[in-house]
């Protein structure tokens, strides 16, 4: 089978497509033929080995785990002897971490992992990025920021995968939403539920006079220092992008600044969130925005587009 790997940190050109043996599922695992997988900003940061203090976990001089991709959607091809909740031909989606990557033709996933039956109302391409965008943002909004009905949330980077997910989820949770993005994406963000949209090149939200209960920096491009003057007294600044500043601030200002590594949460907690997201998708309340798709053979081009900083919504890798 084909699989994308990287053996050293660097530009997209460090990515290789290799041939490897199809994996065999363990007794508690499913073998999934991947139809679609995600490529995210987190993938590119790991490929680059950034931030550099992250190499303490990823590998000091070269990556310990050379695989790429976490989100996937596909068809169960075989199951281990202990599997009882899924069967061959089931269409499932989810994510895998710290193991073989999903930018591949096959992957083995544990039955009790962060996976679910794919709703028939969405395609494999629409399902593949759900755990990267929607699950991460839902974890932040519900369990980190404790967003409540009637509160005002500002989402910085509202046109990316995490941002577009956060806009839709925040509206479902009854919040007033301000989305910050570039001028070309204002209509998209507005169409998905934002009450107010701000072109970051024309207006500095930190000086506009509005106040927020929660600021969700989905792209790691602002800071608590810049935002604290527009947060209510009990307001929260949170970001899924780990930087030295976020790490330090989250330690010294635990009630104000929040960082959470969603992938490090317990599988049972993430599965509960995922089941709620599945219900929302079945009801047509959420939509995955996909602006670009690439074949696995062209994954380098997908990473180049991510590195350009012009990504809108989600990027998906498709397998025939």
> What general outline do the C-alpha atoms trace?
globular
Based on helices, strands and strand pairing, what is the structural class?
Answer: alpha/beta
The helix content, as a percent range, equals: 25-40%
The sequence of SSEs as H and E is EEEHHEEEEHHEHEHEEHEHEHEHE
- Looking at CATH, the homologous superfamily of the largest domain is Medium-chain alcohol dehydrogenases, catalytic domain
Radius of gyration: 19 Å
CATH architecture of the largest domain: Alpha-Beta Complex
Describe the 3D structure.
With 320 residues, this protein is α/β, with parallel strands linked by helices. It folds into two domains: 2-129 and 288-318, Medium-chain alcohol dehydrogenases, catalytic domain (Quinone Oxidoreductase, Chain A, domain 1); 140-261, Rossmann fold, CATH 3.40.50. It is built from ten helices and 15 strands. The protein has helices spanning 41-48, 55-58, 124-127, 130-144, 161-172, 186-191, 224-227, 244-252, 267-282, 299-307; strands at 2-6, 15-19, 29-39, 71-79, 91-95, 106-110, 115-117, 152-156, 176-181, 196-199, 212-217, 231-239, 257-259, 290-295, 314-318. The strands form three sheets. Strands 3, 4, 5, 6, 7, 14 and 15 form a seven-stranded mixed beta sheet that branches. Helix 5 links the parallel strand 8 (152-156) and strand 9. Helix 4 (130-144) crosses helix 9. The longest helix has 16 residues, at 267-282. The protein is globular, with a radius of gyration of 19 Å. The relative contact order is 0.16.
Key words describing this protein structure:
single chain; 320 residues; alpha/beta; Quinone Oxidoreductase, Chain A, domain 1; Rossmann fold; seven-stranded mixed beta sheet; six-stranded parallel beta sheet; 10 helices; 15 strands; globular
